[in-house]
Amino acid sequence: MIELYNFLENNRPQIVTALLTRIPKDLPAYGRVARNDLKQSLDYLIEAYTDLLVTGDDDSQKTYFKFLAKLRVSQSFKLGDVLHKHLLILAVVRPLIQEKFRDHAGDGLGLYNKAMDVLERTHFQSISLMVQVWSDYIKSRADEHNEYVDEENKQLGVDMSKFILFRG
Question: What is the residue-averaged pLDDT of the chain?
């Protein structure tokens, strides 16, 4: 675990640079995000990702994902685009790890498989958390809107419970 953390920390600039090149090509929605903003977002994401990898604690990811959900929803991003960006991390890291273990003395393949297993489980946990946080944010926005509509209707004397909608 610590070795993977060290690997990600030592290769962070290379990982971020590769992602900065690949994300706008693969995801046109990110073409409207300034390069510096995307870089900062990736730095936060990788920092939170390494926290989850090493400690198993997802608090920093939750905090970052809450901010990200609010920001990207306000920019009309689709959840799929945000998740795709997140999934590209593994696509960028995998070849770097292959290179690291390719010439490893001993059981390089076994160590590679073990490292990828840990990274993939961490990544799947991270993606699941992102979907949960995004869904919670959208639900909170819908609830806030519904409360507003109910309050407005109450002030106008409209009782929506008396309206019946028939579909024919």
Answer: 90
Residue 162 pLDDT > 70, yes or no?
no
Domains and CATH numbers, the chain: 2-162 (1.10.490.10)
Tell me how far CA of residue 148 lies from CA of 53, 74, 124, in angstroms: 41, 19, 36
CA 147 to chain centre: 29
* Contact in structure between 101 and 33 (CB atoms under 8 Å): no
Show Cβ contacts of residue 83 under 8 Å, excluding neighbours closer than 6 positions. 127, 130, 131
pTM for the complete prediction?
Answer: 0.81
> What's the CA gap between 79 and 133, in Å, rounded?
11
- Of the chain, the percentage scoring pLDDT greater than 70 comes to 94
DSSP string across 34-72: -HHHHHHHHHHHHHHHHHHHHH---HHHHHHHHHHHHHH
Mean pLDDT for 1-30 is 92
